[in-house]
Amino acid sequence: MSLTTRLKIYNNYNINHNMTRNKSDKYDNAKFNHNKNIKMKSDRLHFIANKSKGENAMLAKKIVELYDTRQISQSDKLEDLLWELRFSTGKVIKNKANKLINKYATIEPITKRLKDKTTQRLQLKEQKSKAITKIQKMFRNTTTFKVSVEQALNKNVLKIIVAANKIGSLIKSEIPAYIARTFLTARKQITYKKYFIYAICNLKNIDTDEEKFAKSKSFESTELGKFFNNFITNINNIGQSDERLKILNVEYNVVQIPEGSGCATATSSREVDSILNKKSVIKIINDDNNCFWYALACLMYPNNKAIRDFRNTKARINTAKTLCNKCKFEWNKPVAINYHCLVEETFNINISVIELQKYTHIRR
Protein backbone atom coordinates (compact mmCIF):
# COMPACT_ATOMS: atom_id res chain seq x y z
CA MET A 1 0.00 0.00 0.00
CA SER A 2 1.40 3.43 -0.92
CA LEU A 3 2.22 6.18 1.57
CA THR A 4 -0.44 8.43 -0.03
CA THR A 5 -3.15 5.82 0.62
CA ARG A 6 -2.09 5.51 4.26
CA LEU A 7 -2.13 9.30 4.75
CA LYS A 8 -5.67 9.52 3.28
CA ILE A 9 -6.88 6.82 5.66
CA TYR A 10 -5.18 8.53 8.63
CA ASN A 11 -6.74 11.89 7.73
CA ASN A 12 -10.16 10.26 7.57
CA TYR A 13 -9.44 8.58 10.92
CA ASN A 14 -8.42 11.88 12.59
CA ILE A 15 -11.70 13.49 11.57
CA ASN A 16 -14.04 10.61 12.39
CA HIS A 17 -12.15 8.48 14.94
CA ASN A 18 -14.79 9.07 17.62
CA MET A 19 -17.39 7.49 15.33
CA THR A 20 -15.28 4.58 14.14
CA ARG A 21 -13.47 3.46 17.29
CA ASN A 22 -14.56 0.37 19.10
CA LYS A 23 -16.73 1.44 22.08
CA SER A 24 -16.84 -1.95 23.78
CA ASP A 25 -16.75 -2.20 27.58
CA LYS A 26 -13.45 -4.08 27.38
CA TYR A 27 -11.78 -1.23 25.49
CA ASP A 28 -12.98 1.43 27.94
CA ASN A 29 -12.33 -0.63 31.07
CA ALA A 30 -10.24 1.31 33.55
CA LYS A 31 -7.99 -1.67 34.29
CA PHE A 32 -5.84 -0.83 31.23
CA ASN A 33 -5.13 2.59 32.73
CA HIS A 34 -3.35 3.85 29.60
CA ASN A 35 -1.88 7.31 29.59
CA LYS A 36 -2.81 9.71 26.83
CA ASN A 37 -0.04 8.64 24.43
CA ILE A 38 -0.78 4.91 24.81
CA LYS A 39 -4.53 5.51 24.34
CA MET A 40 -3.84 7.37 21.13
CA LYS A 41 -1.74 4.51 19.79
CA SER A 42 -4.34 2.01 20.91
CA ASP A 43 -7.07 3.99 19.09
CA ARG A 44 -5.01 3.88 15.92
CA LEU A 45 -4.42 0.12 16.17
CA HIS A 46 -8.16 -0.49 16.75
CA PHE A 47 -9.01 1.66 13.75
CA ILE A 48 -6.70 -0.34 11.47
CA ALA A 49 -7.82 -3.72 12.88
CA ASN A 50 -11.55 -2.97 12.54
CA LYS A 51 -11.19 -2.79 8.74
CA SER A 52 -9.79 -6.32 8.46
CA LYS A 53 -12.10 -9.11 7.29
CA GLY A 54 -12.61 -12.84 7.87
CA GLU A 55 -9.83 -14.78 9.55
CA ASN A 56 -7.54 -11.76 9.31
CA ALA A 57 -9.98 -9.77 11.46
CA MET A 58 -9.71 -12.34 14.29
CA LEU A 59 -5.92 -12.26 14.12
CA ALA A 60 -5.89 -8.46 14.10
CA LYS A 61 -8.18 -8.36 17.15
CA LYS A 62 -5.88 -10.71 19.12
CA ILE A 63 -2.84 -8.60 18.22
CA VAL A 64 -4.52 -5.40 19.42
CA GLU A 65 -5.54 -7.15 22.66
CA LEU A 66 -1.88 -8.00 23.29
CA TYR A 67 -1.09 -4.30 23.06
CA ASP A 68 -4.06 -3.27 25.23
CA THR A 69 -3.04 -5.72 27.96
CA ARG A 70 0.56 -4.40 27.65
CA GLN A 71 1.98 -7.82 26.81
CA ILE A 72 3.48 -6.00 23.83
CA SER A 73 4.65 -2.46 24.54
CA GLN A 74 5.87 -1.36 21.08
CA SER A 75 3.14 -0.34 18.63
CA ASP A 76 5.21 0.42 15.51
CA LYS A 77 5.76 -3.18 14.40
CA LEU A 78 2.16 -4.08 15.26
CA GLU A 79 0.90 -1.25 13.10
CA ASP A 80 2.81 -2.50 10.05
CA LEU A 81 1.50 -6.04 10.64
CA LEU A 82 -2.11 -4.82 10.99
CA TRP A 83 -1.87 -2.94 7.69
CA GLU A 84 -0.68 -6.12 6.01
CA LEU A 85 -3.57 -8.11 7.54
CA ARG A 86 -6.00 -5.47 6.31
CA PHE A 87 -4.89 -5.57 2.69
CA SER A 88 -3.45 -9.07 2.28
CA THR A 89 -5.05 -12.54 2.55
CA GLY A 90 -1.94 -14.65 1.88
CA LYS A 91 -0.72 -17.48 4.14
CA VAL A 92 2.63 -15.82 4.76
CA ILE A 93 1.11 -12.87 6.63
CA LYS A 94 -1.24 -15.19 8.58
CA ASN A 95 1.66 -17.36 9.71
CA LYS A 96 3.57 -14.23 10.70
CA ALA A 97 0.62 -13.03 12.80
CA ASN A 98 0.10 -16.44 14.47
CA LYS A 99 3.79 -16.64 15.32
CA LEU A 100 3.65 -13.22 17.00
CA ILE A 101 0.49 -14.11 18.97
CA ASN A 102 1.95 -17.42 20.20
CA LYS A 103 5.18 -15.72 21.23
CA TYR A 104 3.57 -13.08 23.45
CA ALA A 105 0.42 -14.90 24.63
CA THR A 106 2.11 -16.29 27.77
CA ILE A 107 4.20 -13.20 28.59
CA GLU A 108 3.22 -11.16 31.63
CA PRO A 109 2.05 -7.56 31.05
CA ILE A 110 4.86 -5.02 31.19
CA THR A 111 3.37 -3.36 34.28
CA LYS A 112 3.66 -6.65 36.19
CA ARG A 113 7.16 -7.28 34.89
CA LEU A 114 8.30 -3.85 36.05
CA LYS A 115 6.58 -4.36 39.39
CA ASP A 116 8.38 -7.70 39.85
CA LYS A 117 11.74 -6.07 39.07
CA THR A 118 11.06 -3.30 41.56
CA THR A 119 10.11 -5.85 44.22
CA GLN A 120 13.30 -7.85 43.59
CA ARG A 121 15.41 -4.70 43.77
CA LEU A 122 13.84 -3.68 47.10
CA GLN A 123 14.30 -7.19 48.52
CA LEU A 124 17.97 -7.21 47.48
CA LYS A 125 18.47 -3.78 49.05
CA GLU A 126 16.89 -5.01 52.27
CA GLN A 127 19.12 -8.13 52.29
CA LYS A 128 22.24 -6.00 51.80
CA SER A 129 21.15 -3.67 54.59
CA LYS A 130 20.68 -6.63 56.96
CA ALA A 131 24.06 -8.07 55.94
CA ILE A 132 25.81 -4.74 56.58
CA THR A 133 24.17 -4.44 60.00
CA LYS A 134 25.23 -8.00 60.84
CA ILE A 135 28.84 -7.35 59.80
CA GLN A 136 29.05 -4.08 61.72
CA LYS A 137 27.69 -5.76 64.84
CA MET A 138 30.12 -8.65 64.46
CA PHE A 139 33.12 -6.35 64.17
CA ARG A 140 32.02 -4.07 67.00
CA ASN A 141 31.45 -6.90 69.46
CA THR A 142 33.80 -9.76 68.64
CA THR A 143 36.64 -9.08 66.21
CA THR A 144 40.08 -8.04 67.43
CA PHE A 145 43.30 -8.24 65.47
CA LYS A 146 46.89 -9.09 66.17
CA VAL A 147 49.55 -7.34 64.08
CA SER A 148 53.13 -8.30 63.29
CA VAL A 149 55.51 -5.97 61.46
CA GLU A 150 58.74 -6.88 59.67
CA GLN A 151 61.15 -4.22 58.37
CA ALA A 152 63.80 -4.46 55.65
CA LEU A 153 66.14 -2.32 53.54
CA ASN A 154 66.90 0.18 56.31
CA LYS A 155 63.23 0.39 57.34
CA ASN A 156 62.14 1.43 53.83
CA VAL A 157 60.13 -1.75 53.30
CA LEU A 158 57.41 -3.05 55.63
CA LYS A 159 55.55 -6.35 55.75
CA ILE A 160 52.49 -5.99 57.97
CA ILE A 161 50.59 -9.19 58.76
CA VAL A 162 47.10 -8.74 60.23
CA ALA A 163 45.14 -11.70 61.60
CA ALA A 164 41.96 -11.93 63.66
CA ASN A 165 42.30 -13.39 67.14
CA LYS A 166 38.97 -15.14 66.75
CA ILE A 167 36.61 -15.28 63.78
CA GLY A 168 34.49 -17.96 62.13
CA SER A 169 33.72 -18.52 58.47
CA LEU A 170 32.83 -15.64 56.18
CA ILE A 171 30.55 -15.58 53.17
CA LYS A 172 31.74 -13.47 50.26
CA SER A 173 29.37 -10.56 50.98
CA GLU A 174 31.09 -10.12 54.36
CA ILE A 175 34.67 -10.09 53.07
CA PRO A 176 34.90 -6.39 51.97
CA ALA A 177 34.09 -5.14 55.47
CA TYR A 178 36.60 -7.53 57.01
CA ILE A 179 39.38 -6.52 54.60
CA ALA A 180 38.62 -2.84 55.21
CA ARG A 181 39.03 -3.38 58.94
CA THR A 182 42.38 -5.18 58.49
CA PHE A 183 43.64 -2.37 56.25
CA LEU A 184 42.67 0.31 58.77
CA THR A 185 44.55 -1.69 61.40
CA ALA A 186 47.64 -2.04 59.17
CA ARG A 187 47.57 1.61 58.16
CA LYS A 188 48.35 2.65 61.74
CA GLN A 189 51.79 1.05 61.30
CA ILE A 190 52.64 3.06 58.15
CA THR A 191 54.49 6.32 58.82
CA TYR A 192 55.63 7.01 55.25
CA LYS A 193 54.26 10.06 53.42
CA LYS A 194 54.34 8.32 50.04
CA TYR A 195 54.56 4.62 49.36
CA PHE A 196 53.66 1.70 47.11
CA ILE A 197 51.44 -1.02 48.53
CA TYR A 198 50.20 -4.46 47.54
CA ALA A 199 48.42 -7.08 49.62
CA ILE A 200 48.04 -10.86 49.89
CA CYS A 201 45.03 -12.54 51.52
CA ASN A 202 45.48 -16.13 52.71
CA LEU A 203 42.22 -18.09 53.01
CA LYS A 204 41.04 -21.60 53.79
CA ASN A 205 37.89 -23.43 52.73
CA ILE A 206 36.04 -24.48 55.90
CA ASP A 207 34.57 -27.62 54.31
CA THR A 208 37.58 -28.95 52.38
CA ASP A 209 40.54 -27.38 54.30
CA GLU A 210 41.91 -26.22 50.93
CA GLU A 211 44.16 -23.19 51.30
CA LYS A 212 43.97 -20.38 48.76
CA PHE A 213 45.39 -16.91 48.34
CA ALA A 214 44.56 -13.73 46.46
CA LYS A 215 47.01 -10.94 45.59
CA SER A 216 46.39 -7.35 44.59
CA LYS A 217 48.34 -5.29 42.11
CA SER A 218 50.75 -2.62 43.33
CA PHE A 219 49.36 0.90 43.81
CA GLU A 220 50.64 4.22 45.08
CA SER A 221 49.37 5.67 48.35
CA THR A 222 47.36 8.21 46.31
CA GLU A 223 45.36 5.33 44.75
CA LEU A 224 44.13 3.50 47.86
CA GLY A 225 40.55 3.35 46.52
CA LYS A 226 41.72 1.53 43.38
CA PHE A 227 43.96 -0.69 45.51
CA PHE A 228 41.06 -1.74 47.73
CA ASN A 229 38.69 -2.41 44.80
CA ASN A 230 41.34 -4.48 42.98
CA PHE A 231 42.09 -6.50 46.12
CA ILE A 232 38.41 -7.26 46.85
CA THR A 233 37.79 -8.21 43.20
CA ASN A 234 40.68 -10.70 43.23
CA ILE A 235 39.43 -12.24 46.49
CA ASN A 236 35.89 -12.58 45.13
CA ASN A 237 37.22 -14.35 42.05
CA ILE A 238 38.30 -17.26 44.24
CA GLY A 239 35.85 -20.16 44.54
CA GLN A 240 32.05 -20.06 44.52
CA SER A 241 29.71 -17.35 45.81
CA ASP A 242 28.30 -19.61 48.56
CA GLU A 243 31.68 -21.04 49.58
CA ARG A 244 32.47 -20.80 53.30
CA LEU A 245 35.91 -19.23 53.67
CA LYS A 246 38.11 -18.49 56.64
CA ILE A 247 40.67 -15.71 56.31
CA LEU A 248 43.91 -16.85 57.90
CA ASN A 249 45.67 -13.50 57.63
CA VAL A 250 46.13 -10.49 55.38
CA GLU A 251 49.65 -9.37 54.46
CA TYR A 252 50.29 -5.75 53.45
CA ASN A 253 53.64 -5.06 51.77
CA VAL A 254 54.66 -1.41 51.77
CA VAL A 255 57.64 0.21 49.99
CA GLN A 256 58.52 3.81 50.80
CA ILE A 257 58.87 6.28 47.93
CA PRO A 258 61.96 8.42 48.75
CA GLU A 259 61.57 12.18 48.87
CA GLY A 260 63.99 14.76 47.52
CA SER A 261 66.18 14.75 44.41
CA GLY A 262 68.92 12.47 45.77
CA CYS A 263 72.62 13.21 45.48
CA ALA A 264 73.18 16.24 43.27
CA THR A 265 76.72 15.13 42.40
CA ALA A 266 75.79 11.58 41.36
CA THR A 267 77.40 10.60 38.07
CA SER A 268 75.61 7.30 37.52
CA SER A 269 72.13 7.22 36.02
CA ARG A 270 69.34 6.00 38.32
CA GLU A 271 66.92 5.21 35.51
CA VAL A 272 65.57 1.66 35.55
CA ASP A 273 66.90 0.74 32.10
CA SER A 274 70.36 1.95 33.06
CA ILE A 275 70.33 -0.04 36.33
CA LEU A 276 69.22 -3.23 34.58
CA ASN A 277 72.07 -2.90 32.09
CA LYS A 278 74.75 -2.87 34.83
CA LYS A 279 77.07 -5.87 35.14
CA SER A 280 76.13 -6.31 38.79
CA VAL A 281 72.51 -6.98 37.79
CA ILE A 282 71.82 -10.54 36.68
CA LYS A 283 69.17 -10.94 33.99
CA ILE A 284 67.32 -14.23 33.93
CA ILE A 285 66.43 -15.29 30.39
CA ASN A 286 64.29 -18.42 30.23
CA ASP A 287 61.33 -19.97 28.43
CA ASP A 288 59.84 -21.97 31.32
CA ASN A 289 58.38 -21.31 34.81
CA ASN A 290 61.63 -21.65 36.79
CA CYS A 291 62.97 -18.08 36.72
CA PHE A 292 62.79 -17.91 40.54
CA TRP A 293 65.05 -20.94 40.97
CA TYR A 294 67.50 -19.69 38.32
CA ALA A 295 67.76 -16.34 40.10
CA LEU A 296 68.22 -18.08 43.45
CA ALA A 297 70.96 -20.30 42.00
CA CYS A 298 72.88 -17.23 40.79
CA LEU A 299 72.60 -15.60 44.23
CA MET A 300 73.52 -18.74 46.18
CA TYR A 301 76.60 -19.41 44.00
CA PRO A 302 77.87 -15.93 43.01
CA ASN A 303 81.30 -17.19 41.95
CA ASN A 304 79.99 -19.81 39.55
CA LYS A 305 80.19 -18.11 36.15
CA ALA A 306 78.62 -21.10 34.37
CA ILE A 307 75.36 -20.61 36.24
CA ARG A 308 75.26 -16.87 35.45
CA ASP A 309 75.73 -17.55 31.73
CA PHE A 310 72.21 -18.06 30.33
CA ARG A 311 73.70 -19.98 27.39
CA ASN A 312 74.93 -22.73 29.73
CA THR A 313 71.45 -24.09 30.43
CA LYS A 314 72.59 -27.51 31.66
CA ALA A 315 74.64 -26.19 34.60
CA ARG A 316 71.98 -23.68 35.57
CA ILE A 317 69.13 -26.21 35.44
CA ASN A 318 70.99 -28.81 37.53
CA THR A 319 71.80 -26.29 40.28
CA ALA A 320 68.32 -24.76 40.25
CA LYS A 321 66.68 -28.20 40.44
CA THR A 322 68.79 -29.07 43.47
CA LEU A 323 67.59 -25.93 45.27
CA CYS A 324 63.98 -26.62 44.29
CA ASN A 325 64.10 -30.20 45.58
CA LYS A 326 65.69 -29.11 48.83
CA CYS A 327 62.77 -26.73 49.46
CA LYS A 328 60.33 -29.53 48.48
CA PHE A 329 58.72 -27.49 45.72
CA GLU A 330 57.45 -28.78 42.38
CA TRP A 331 59.75 -28.11 39.44
CA ASN A 332 58.52 -25.96 36.54
CA LYS A 333 55.76 -24.40 38.64
CA PRO A 334 55.67 -20.63 39.40
CA VAL A 335 56.56 -19.78 43.00
CA ALA A 336 53.95 -17.48 44.56
CA ILE A 337 55.35 -14.57 46.50
CA ASN A 338 53.71 -15.66 49.75
CA TYR A 339 55.71 -18.93 49.60
CA HIS A 340 59.08 -17.15 49.57
CA CYS A 341 59.15 -17.42 53.38
CA LEU A 342 59.56 -21.22 53.05
CA VAL A 343 62.66 -20.72 50.91
CA GLU A 344 64.01 -18.15 53.39
CA GLU A 345 63.62 -20.60 56.26
CA THR A 346 65.27 -23.44 54.31
CA PHE A 347 68.43 -21.49 53.43
CA ASN A 348 68.38 -18.91 56.25
CA ILE A 349 68.31 -15.97 53.84
CA ASN A 350 66.19 -12.88 53.17
CA ILE A 351 64.44 -12.41 49.83
CA SER A 352 63.23 -8.97 48.70
CA VAL A 353 60.92 -8.56 45.70
CA ILE A 354 60.68 -5.10 44.12
CA GLU A 355 58.25 -4.39 41.29
CA LEU A 356 60.07 -2.14 38.82
CA GLN A 357 57.42 -1.84 36.12
CA LYS A 358 55.99 1.35 37.63
CA TYR A 359 59.36 3.01 38.29
CA THR A 360 60.89 5.14 35.55
CA HIS A 361 63.49 6.69 37.83
CA ILE A 362 64.93 5.33 41.10
CA ARG A 363 66.40 7.77 43.65
CA ARG A 364 68.94 7.02 46.36
Provide the fold topology.
Elements: H1 3-20, H2 25-28, H3 36-49, H4 55-68, H5 76-87, H6 91-104, H7 110-141, E1 145-152, E2 157-164, H8 175-187, E3 195-205, E4 211-215, E5 219-220, H9 224-236, E6 245-256, H10 272-276, H11 291-300, H12 305-308, H13 313-326, H14 340-347
Antiparallel strand pairs: 1-2, 2-6, 3-4, 3-5, 3-6
Structure, described:
The protein folds into 3 domains: 3-107, no CATH class; 143-256, Dna Ligase, domain 1 (2-Layer Sandwich), CATH 3.30.1490; 272-347, no CATH class. The chain has 14 helices and 6 strands. It has helices at 3-20, 25-28, 36-49, 55-68, 76-87, 91-104, 110-141, 175-187, 224-236, 272-276, 291-300, 305-308, 313-326, 340-347; strands at 145-152, 157-164, 195-205, 211-215, 219-220, 245-256. Strands 1, 2, 3, 4, 5 and 6 form a 6-stranded antiparallel β-sheet that branches. The model is unreliable at 15-34, 263-267 and 359-364 (pLDDT under 50).
